[in-house]
Amino acid sequence: MNTAQLAPAGQGVKLDARIEAADLARELRAHTQGEVLFDAASRGRYATDASIYQIEPVGVFVPKTENDVASALRIAAARGVPLLPRGGGTSQCGQTVGAALVVDHSKHLRNVTALDLERGEVEVQPGITLDALNAQLKPHGVWHPVDVSTSAQATLGGMAGNNSCGSRSIAYGNMVHNVAGITALLADGTECEFGAFDRATGRARELGEAVRALAQRERAEIERLWPKVMRRVGGYNLDVFHPQSERPYTSDGSVNLAQLLVGSEGTLAYFKRLRLKLVPLPAQRVLGVVNFPTFYAAMDAAQHIVKLGPTAVELVDRTMIELARANPAFRSVIESALIDEPEAILLVEFAGADKPALIAQLARLVELMGELKLPDSVVRMTDDAAQKALWEVRKAGLNIMMSLKGDGKPVSFIEDCAVPLEHLAEYTSQLTDVFRKHGTRGTWYAHASVGTLHVRPILDIREGGEKGGAAKMRAIAEEASELVRRYKGAYSGEHGDGLSRSEWVAWQFGPRLTAALEEIKQLFDPRGLMNPGKIVRPSKMDDRRLFRFAPGYAVLPLQPVLDWSAWNVQNDPATETLTAPGTGGDAAAGFGKAVEMCNNNGHCRKFDAGTMCPSYRVTRDEQHLTRGRANTLRLALSGQLGPDAFTSDTVYEAMDLCVSCKGCKRECPTGVDMAKMKIEFLHHYKQRHGHTLKDKLVAHLPRYAGIASRVPWLANLRNRVPLLAQLGERWLGLSAQRSLPEFRADVFTRSAPPAPAPAQFKQDARKQVVLLADTFNNYYEPDNLRAAQRVLEAGGYEVAVARGADGRPLCCGRTYLGTGMVDQAKIEARRLLDALLPYVRAGASVVGLEPSCLFGLRDEYLVMGLGAEAEELADASWLFEEFIVRESNAGRFNAVFKPLAKQALLHGHCHQKAFGAMPAVIDALRLVPQLKVQTIESSCCGMAGSFGYEASHYIVSMAMAEASLLPAVRKADADTLIVADGTSCRHQIHDGAQRAAVHVAQVLVQAL
Ligand SMILES: Cc1cc2nc3c(=O)[nH]c(=O)nc-3n(C[C@H](O)[C@H](O)[C@H](O)COP(=O)(O)OP(=O)(O)OC[C@H]3O[C@@H](n4cnc5c(N)ncnc54)[C@H](O)[C@@H]3O)c2cc1C
Ligand code: SF4
Ligand code: SF4
Q1: How far is ligand 3, taken at its centre, from the CA of residue 626, in Å?
Q2: Average pLDDT, stretch 584-613?
Q3: CB of 401 closer than 6 A to ligand 1?
Q4: By CB neighbour count within 10 A (0-12 exposed, 13-18 middle, 19+ buried), where does 216 fall?
């Protein structure tokens, strides 16, 4: 069996191995409270991390308690099964990939267990993320300062495992400098306290003394070969006894055994609890942006700039600058930092308690640049908001770079080599030549302050052979390592060893020290059960059998129902230009490549103000995460989950809690659009399994709503008769705990006059609007459409309400898309296009109220095979508030609003957020004098079309609403206007907080 790849279920795996795994699972279930996930899809979801590797784990265990971990460790050890601790799984080198029992403690073991402000220490469980920890510390004026870019995902266990480093490491050091103690479980289950060596007792003392003896034996070799740079994270920290780094391990020169464990990548012990150092939160920060005429000059200046004592010196190169400029959201921010056309900029930050002192440091930076013959090259930023915006640009640039389509991808394997600053310019210049020689290029960014510049050459690692990506990866690694040696640097300077760099440990430290590192492993873990194959006894970095796209990987042929050809492309690694859509060679016509865009970086595991990913936010399950879904789809599409897996219930389960919020479309760095993928999936799944009665009831709403609205007392009876609600739950799966939206008799389109033909409009084209009466507003809340019409007319617009040729109101097809009836959705879309195109071509704007309907015209319509006409419609389609604000800014909107001395509390619909329409709704509300607008920092409301009405989703739906939306609404005064533009959001607010929420059109009409 090829152990690297996932064997299709039931194939390839030796029978005795499967029996053993089943026994292990049984025992774990019997003796722990944790979740035991041994099915093929779960194992597949844990077979990858943010690296290029994939190895099937034996099984996955999600402990509920610390005792569960201890039990799992003992049970696995008794059976000789290796154990692999895992946090966010965001490692870039394959640290969390292995044929072991993976223990994912990020779901439950994430508490702060003690806080000692006097000592400046906090004790945590390993599964807490850095952002969650720092949020809890903020009120105390302190933080844990190892500020990794993945702070929202990175767990403290994983950060300690990898010896992670933040942007401000020049000021605060790496993780190893910030861990005071570790309570660890050894592979045999023994619990040990690792802290100050002189106070160590028991096994910890014995192990410490044994390592000290090794260190003494190898002292000369350590002094000869150990990299002296601060950014060295490869190998074990054997030098704790004779520190070699330019930054000492401890301020008083004492030895701390916890530091021996930091960076051990789960190979020596399991960290049950970590004692971490805290520092005061800097009260003030200022930023100097230095503009350089050449990249070389920027690199050369870093060594001088660090002498001024900055807290960060971060690079943004020309490519990143251009990427930021190309993005409308970032253009003005990046341009505010530029002087002329620099080839690179350095973001130089100073932080401290006293702003005038920091401003003096900025002045010193300006002086220094003058001395370096670069006068007038510094943009000074002292305002907090401006600084924050620029840091966001630096992060976003990396994200855009990672979204390159095609099989060539920026690959991380030499991305964090560290060299002394005086050689940075030479090193980067020569490495650029290496890339060129191999027909590729890299974009440089990150930590100039400590000589660790990130760079990823674009390689197609699926290609085998001498000229293939894997071969190039080795060649580039070898040439890069020559440079690192020449400049006395460290090969692994930030991201650890894992599968891609453990092989280089011997290269870095030489045979004697490598043997000593193996002895450390032997001392801690004599049976080799802790995360084998990392740091010592490694595999080859270019062993293609261990790759996610291993030899033989292929997507199975599939005819998608949506157009994915934009993903079916290849790229030129030297120029990043793409081939024509449809030419990428994907057997699934681009759908496979769209799914493969997920590079497992884990950014979707977040809880910030954004939307992504609501179902993960409430479940914390890998299965219900964008990454988990993308992995499930990839494995199914490539036959790694058995025959017909793509339309199986396994995939259905993974897609089921996706609320199609499109949070990922906007917030995933590589643009994974799971909502669109769910439409594709449902189409195929339902073709195989058929549609349920509930599907039909939901999907055909636009077709029967007209009849239902003629007899609303009958259609709405279900909401008044509990027995009917219960029967509805049993037969249709619609939750009896929910009220359903109520049909109204005064349907908007019934009272609207027939739309004039385009030529009959009286106003000129810029003042013509076709109001899209979506099914939900039309039949459930017609007052919203009336309000919108009044506001538009007050603004001087001529408003027409178009219908289909058959007289039936138009429908965008959303209910059909949501139930996988894509062919029906195409029929509705065609009808809508035919009705609206004449107006669009005459210059009218199409305006809609319901975000999910209106944005469908700009999004799904473009991939439904509707041709170029869909683009014409998309260009002319506006959400009501977008239109009002655009027209108001252009001076064409004539209405004057009266003051409303009130508070408006705004909840954004997910699609408003996904399409960047939140500023528009805020600006539209601000047109009303004296109205104070406050936005709720909410993700999805949880209703999401029909999702929340379904009995099987009720609990998850309410949990989503309770995460922030409903508590915020409940806190609002009775007088506050709750504003929500989504029909289902309003319903959820009404159901959950018994408050009426209104569409923005209703607020504006009140102020006329
Ligand atoms: C886009 C991107 C940006 C990144 N930026 C940075 C950066 O700025 N700085 C940086 O240093 N890194 C960075 N990384 C790498 C990675 O995010 C960090 O190393 C992070 O700290 C890993 O945290 P995690 O919770 O995902 O750990 P995981 O990947 O889950 O685990 C990391 C290692 O720790 C071990 N481990 C986890 N928990 C325990 C435990 N309880 N006991 C023992 N061992 C354990 C694991 O076995 C593994 O070997 C980046 C990665 C990505 C994808
Ligand atoms: S879905 Fe996007 S954000 Fe999530 S892991 Fe994949 S690439 Fe990263
Ligand atoms: S569409 Fe929303 S729920 Fe679905 S995967 Fe993306 S972020 Fe998660």
Answers
A1: 6
A2: 94
A3: no
A4: exposed
710 CA to middle of ligand 3, Å? Answer: 37
- Cβ neighbours, 10 Å, residue 909: 28
Q: Which ligand is nearest to the CA of 599?
A: 2
Q: What is the dihedral of CA 804, 807, 809, 812, to 10 degrees?
A: -20
- Residue 161 beta carbon below 6 angstroms from any ligand 1 atom: yes
Distance 368 CA to ligand 3 centre (A): 49
Question: Does residue 654 line the site of ligand 3, with CB under 6 A?
Answer: no
415 CB-near residues (< 8 Å, 6+ apart): 92, 454, 455, 456, 495
Q: Are 87 and 496 in contact (CB under 8 A)?
A: no
Nearest CA to ligand 2 atom 7: 598
Strand locations in 200-318 (E)? 270-277, 279-280, 284-292, 312-317
CA of 595 to the centre of ligand 3 (A): 14
Query: Which residues lie across from 273 on neighbouring strands?
Result: 183
Number of residues that make up the chain: 1008
Q: Which residues contact 525 (CB under 8 A, 6 or more apart)?
A: 186, 187, 267, 268, 269
Which tens digits make up the pLDDT trace of 902-952? Answer: 999 999 999 999 999 999 999 999 999 999 999 999 899 999 999 999 999
Q: Is the CB of 660 under 6 A from ligand 3?
A: yes
From the CA of 398, give the closest atom in ligand 1: 1
Q: Using an 8 Å Cβ cutoff, are 6 and 640 in contact?
A: yes
Q: How far does residue 612's CA lie from ligand 3's centre (Å)?
A: 6
* Ligand 1 atom at shortest distance from the alpha carbon of 531: 47
What pLDDT, on the 0 to 100 scale, is given for residue 10? 37
Please give the structure tokens belonging to residue 528.
Answer: 């080799």
For ligand 1, whether the C-beta of 245 sits within 6 Å is: no
Residue 681: pLDDT band (50, 70, 90) is very high
pLDDT tens per residue across span 791-826: 999 999 999 999 888 889 999 999 999 999 999 999
Instruction: Quote the mean pLDDT of the chain.
Output: 94
Ligand nearest 272 Cα, by number?
A: 1
Distances (CA, A) of 753 to 430, 795, 964: 72, 19, 42
614-647 per-position pLDDT tens digit: 999 999 999 999 999 999 999 999 999 999 999 9
Q: Which atom of ligand 1 is nearest to the CA of 498?
A: 49
Asked whether 672 lines ligand 2 (CB < 6 A), one says yes
Cβ–ligand 2 contact at 627 (below 6 Å): yes
Instruction: Tell me the three state secondary structure of residue 101.
Output: strand
CA of 626 to the centre of ligand 2 (A): 6
Q: Is the CB of 1002 under 6 A from ligand 2?
A: no
| Closest residue by CA, ligand 3 atom 6 | 664
Burial letters 1-33, b for 16+ CB under 10 A, else e: eeebbbbbbeeebeeeeeeebeebbebbeeebe
Calpha distance 333→72 (Å, rounded): 50
pTM of the model: 0.95
- Which tens digit of pLDDT belongs to each residue from 308-358? 999 999 998 888 888 788 777 688 899 999 998 999 999 999 999 899 999
What CA–CA distance (Å, rounded) separates 846 from 840?
A: 7
Query: Is ligand 1 within 6 A of the CB of residue 90?
Result: yes
From residue 419, how far is each of 227, 235, 694, 804 by CA, in Å?
A: 9, 17, 62, 67
Whether residue 406 contacts residue 413, with contact meaning beta carbons closer than 8 Å, is answered with: no
